[in-house]
Amino acid sequence: MPQPFSSSSIPSTLSSLKKLNDASLFHHNACINGKWVESKSSQKFEVHDPATLARIGALPDMNSSDVQSAVSSAKRSFQEWSKFTARKREACLLKWYDLIRENKKDLGRIMTIECGKPTAEAEGEVEYGASFIKWFAEEGIRSYGDYIPAPGANTRHVFMKQPLGVVGIVTPWNFPIAMITRKVGAALAAGNSVVIKPASETPYSALAITELAHRAGIPPGVINVVTTHSNVEEVGTELCTNPDVAKISFTGSTGVGKKLMSLASGTMKRVSFELGGNAPFIVFDDAEIDKAVDGLMASKFRNAGQTCVCANRIYVHQSIHDEFVGKVADRVAQLKVGHGLVEGVNIGPLIYDRALTKVDNLVQDAINKGASVVTGGKSLKDSMVGHFYSPTILTNVKDDMLVAKEEIFGPVCPIFTFHDEQEIIQRANNTRVGLAGYFFSRDIGRIWRVAEGIDVGMVGVNTGAISSEIGPFGGVKESGLGREGSKYGLDEYLNIKWVTLAL
Predict the structure, then answer these.
(1) How many CA atoms are closer than 13 Å to the CA of 260, on its beta-carbon side?
(2) From what superkingdom does this record's organism come (predicted)?
């Protein structure tokens, strides 16, 4: 069983922050019109380290009035930024990309302290997040329109692409940099300005990369950051209903996405939503078992299982079940649980206490309905200060258990068995969401059948890692609308205008 670190090995939150190479990246104010500002109400909220529960700092608890100021700032700056040539915007974005990478260690440290992600993962996310800035900087100069041959002799037809205006961006805590850059990179490359509402658990990462955007020469007001905790609903409502906001881009739960979509419909805003998942991970009897185990470890336990594309339901063919479970158990036993800044740790805390409670409730439900615990299966509250849960493997799992129906968002690996291909495709699709799916097989015919048959937006075949700036990230069914990344991601932030010219 994975062994948690003792409390004596957990570093002090404040001493860790003092080790930043550039302390000016760590802002305690929000950002509107290029200025670091308090809330109009002067209210603040505290941010805590989920591994130590220590106070990191306090930030402005903004409300709708502050959002209105941010939107007004973004609207003014849009007039300037949208008139920049694509090459000029590219130069600013590439400078921002360079600065993010140059400050990778500081950004990674800030991220680890506020969301618990182990250092290697945090620094990996910084690189991943930066990749979207570079990608869209380069895509922005290739935002082509079309000249269409006219049906009549005396007209000409041109289709041009133009930016939308002000974009409201709402991001989650589990990827506090990459979820911002994946949206903002595309929005800015297309010529839009933005108002960002980062998660209240992880606002410091957003503020740090905004500081670097200023240094890169992106004009004041193009990027605005509104922080809040107690007024989340009010801030979200203002962004979705403000007539000067042209689009809402949101990553988070399906339930919240539906509320935002309803609010945005009042002004017919463009929307793109990347919502919840319940990813199937299927291992067929002809799979390379060791490769499948590698894929599962990469997909399931990254960020302590707190990603939207995590393997959630692990289906293993009955003929290889015992061998597969044994190999996974050996790998899980090598995992180290603790503060992400401690060398060797690869499983950090869950983000907050209610996440810990939810995961434990899902596990206990499975146990009460007959599941067996191979390893883990409990909270580490008694031995560790923060929100830690033991990496867990469950077997004898059935489709009527909550772990089959809900997104776990924790280091819990429920393993089901199956008999044949047709059966497992049907079971994999038996959910209202469809973000990502994975399967392992060496049969080329089966690979095509299953890849086409799984009702998801993204499929990993013989791999547990699918995220890249080159791919269109997004889902089907209740996993959302639109795509992020890839050449398709830029079009989410552009309008098509048809110009007919009579000669």
Answers:
(1) 30
(2) Eukaryota
What per-residue string of b and e applies to 446-463 under the rule 16 or more CB within 10 Å gives b?
bbeebeebbbbbbbbbbe
Residue 403, phi then psi, degrees to nearest 5: -65, -20
**At 136, which helix (H) or strand (E)?**
helix 119-140
**Which of helix, strand or coil describes residue 408?**
coil
Q: In what order do the strands lie in the sheet with 155-163?
A: 146-148, 155-163, 494-502
Q: Taking a C-beta distance cutoff of 8 angstroms, is the pair 486, 156 a contact? A: no
Q: Where are the alpha helices (DSSP H) in 348-472?
A: 353-368, 402-405, 421-428, 444-453
CA gap 472, 486 in Å, rounded: 5
131-179 pLDDT, tens per residue?
Answer: 999 999 999 999 999 999 999 899 999 999 999 999 999 999 999 999 9
CA angle 299, 302, 308 (to 5 degrees): 70
Angle of helix 232-241 versus helix 254-264 axis, rounded to 10: 40
What is the per-residue pLDDT across 358-370, written as a single tens digit (0 to 9) for each?
Answer: 999 999 999 999 9
**Cα(231)–Cα(310) distance, rounded to whole angstroms?**
30
What does DSSP say about strands 433-434 and 270-274: parallel, antiparallel, or unpaired?
unpaired
C-alpha 453/C-alpha 451 separation (Å) is 6
Strand locations in 26-70, DSSP E?
A: 30-32, 35-37, 44-48, 55-60
Structure tokens at 210: 């905004």
Provide the annotated active-site residues. Answer: 274
**Using CA of residue 460, residue 462, residue 464, residue 466, what is the dihedral sign?**
negative
DSSP letter string, 240-292: HH-TTEEEEEEES-HHHHHHHHHHHGGGT-EEEEE----EEEEE-TTS-HHHH
Q: Tokens 């499929």 map to which residue? A: 459
